[in-house]
Amino acid sequence: MDTKLLVFDLDGTLIDTMGDYADKAAALIFKHYGTPISEAHRLYFETSGLPFEQQLEQLFPKATGNAEVALRFESWKDKYLLNVILPTKTEQLLHHWQNAGFRIAIASNNLESYVKRLANNWPVDAALGYRAWDGFCKGEPHFQKLENDFGWSREQMLFIGDSPNDARIAVRSNVPFLALLSGEFISADFTKHYPDVRFIRQLSDINDFLTLSKVNFYEKSSADSRSCYPRFN
User: How big is the chain by its Cα radius of gyration, in Å?
Assistant: First the structure.
């Protein structure tokens, strides 16, 4: 089937925010848990792609300060994102794909309020974020909503993300995937788990795959696809 819906991760894929997130998260982790900054920075990226509260639960299970640290991070992020804009070249590409007949969606584990505020004037057809109160998140819940809203199968979607967690979500959700090498991860970070993953180095490289009649890089996974918070073993 031809690809009809392009689904983008947000942070690190459409906007260059991950470095600043990592710096702030590392500072908070050092202050509240005593983890050295360099190690905290590494741990943040190792678990990136999840809501920050879930990252903390993976890194420091049941620690009493997790809720407070997550709240401090999200309070900072709320103000930080007020100054973030979609790069001009990225906006032009999204317009190009829309004009070519593709629909555009965002699937992010950033808080839904942030995602919708950011994407309010962007050339996108759907902007999905994370809701803690009902578990709506990047993964099965997002892709099921996109199926329902647009009426297309997952084989007609193409998910683009910049983290190994995005690749894992794609496999578990049975959605074709492209890994963007944005600088925070190298190809080996993906291929050690998914040797057949395909890569792009910039968003415009997506055009090379849209000429294919079907972009499907994985066999269907037998893993439980319902989880929003996949973990690497």
Answer: 17
- 206 to each of 79, 147, 219, how far by Cα in Å? 32, 21, 21
Identify whether the C-beta of residue 108 lies closer than 8 Å to the C-beta of residue 7: no
Gap between the Cα atoms of 207 and 98, Å rounded: 13
- pLDDT the model gives residue 182: 85
Question: Per residue in 58-99, pLDDT tens?
Answer: 999 999 999 999 999 999 999 999 999 999 999 999 999 999
Tokens of 84: 């973030």
Closest CA to 162 of 12, 5, 7: 12
Mean pLDDT of 14-30: 97
Q: Which amino acid is at 228?
A: C
Query: What span, in angstroms and rounded, lies between the C-alpha atoms of 116 and 129?
Result: 8
pLDDT at 216 over 80: no
| 159 phi, psi to nearest 5 deg | -100, 130
CB 158 within 8 A of CB 209: yes
